[in-house]
Amino acid sequence: MESNNHKNSSSLSSPRTGSATLFEKIWEKHVVKTIEEGPSVLYIDKHLIHEVTSPQAFSGLNKRGIRVFRPKQIVATADHNVPTLNQHLPIKEELGRKQVEALIRNCAEQGIELYGLGHPFQGIVHVIGPELGITQPGMTIVCGDSHTSTHGAFGSIAFGIGTSEVEMVMATQCLLQSKPKLMRITVDGTLNKAVVSKDIVLYILSKISASGATGYAVEFAGSAIRSLSMEARMTICNMSIEMGGRCGLIAPDETTFSYIKGKEFAPKGADWGQRLASWKELYSDADAVFDKEYHFNAEDIQPMITYGTNPGMGIGVSENIPTTETIHETDRSGLAKSLAYMGLQQGAPIKGQKIDYVFIGSCTNSRIEDLRMVASFVKGKKKAEAVEVWVVPGSKQVEAQAIKEGIDKVFDEAGFQLRQPGCSACLGMNEDKIPAGKYCISTSNRNFEGRQGAGARTLLASPLTAAAAAITGKVSDIRELL
Questions:
Q1: DSSP state, 192?
Q2: CA 280 to CA 255: how far, in whole Å?
Q3: What is the tens place of the pLDDT at every residue in 143-156?
Q4: Which CATH number fits domain 304-480: 3.20.20.10, 3.40.50.2000, 3.40.50.620, 3.30.499.10?
Q5: What CATH architecture is 15-178+229-282?
């Protein structure tokens, strides 16, 4: 259900009423200056960088003869274009090798902390930030990567930026930003068996479309959201960008605070108490006003899977692929094009579709809870003979924990390959690509044409649904296998 409270977003200079949303509370504390009839100069608390979108920014600073303004507020890692096998050896792929070498050199010259290959903290940038306690409530966080929205799960304003903006933040620790409109998506109720956070967000996408939140900062709320772990909340916020949202947020609560406490870079001692008191003020006031609201019932959600070429083209795993008669007229040409690429038929069931590859990983679903979820299902089972299964942990810490818990042995016995940390087959930039024409069930966030490799056919799903396909060799309903 959708409701529009009013048509116009608030001005940049003041909140629309005496009350405020979570987004407004954080935004207003970080505005350095508002340009009349223009954007705001927004202070950035934490800047995350990786090897792909930073070289040009460093080069720009060097050409201008200036240094990084506040290097201690930047954290770097290598993740996008790194191999996930034999990371102790030199990188074979030339572009990836040059990008990683440039990151090492630039960070050393500028005094930036780098968690490179071989470092115990290395991993996907949106996995290591939270697990190290770098990501904290009330922050503004940016990175040259669209899925920076992940960090909003902690009650922060976090969003992706372009390379020129990476350079701007490096030079000034500020960024020119226009205030987005505000949306709240509320999911109330109790989740059904085998329905997890990935299913929630794919369900929302199927209802509002891949452009339904364009221009909005999206706050996720409701009892079903509050019931989620922090790692599950990160999955929700990670894919807020797939709705077109500028960022996604979830108000911090005791679940958030418990997760952060004791982490490597979390506040300690008296500082913890002070921070905690301020974090507890981060919520949308009861009478706060949003530009648009959606309400969904958790009980309506079943295990989800995509059938097309954008994340909004999703259905319940027991449903049939839509037909031109059952979708909106404006989407009909897109449906035909997507199904032609995917090699699927209108009106056909998605369940039973043969699968060639299963990829469990990415900044969406590569945390220890995801690996535990998969291991608990596949223990004692064997993968289908014709399916190749890659499990790629999101960080060295996740990898180490998986080994400590014996999850690596469960995967090995099932025929799953546990690789080393990196973005891997999410984006087809590194060596881990899906061959043309092959079907891959992926726990990542995008199923665009060629996303996982030229001609690759991607179906997005939860770790549980991916695990079910790995065992059966086809799209399966996990509920029938538990």
A1: P
A2: 12
A3: 999 999 999 999 99
A4: 3.30.499.10
A5: 2-Layer Sandwich (3.30)
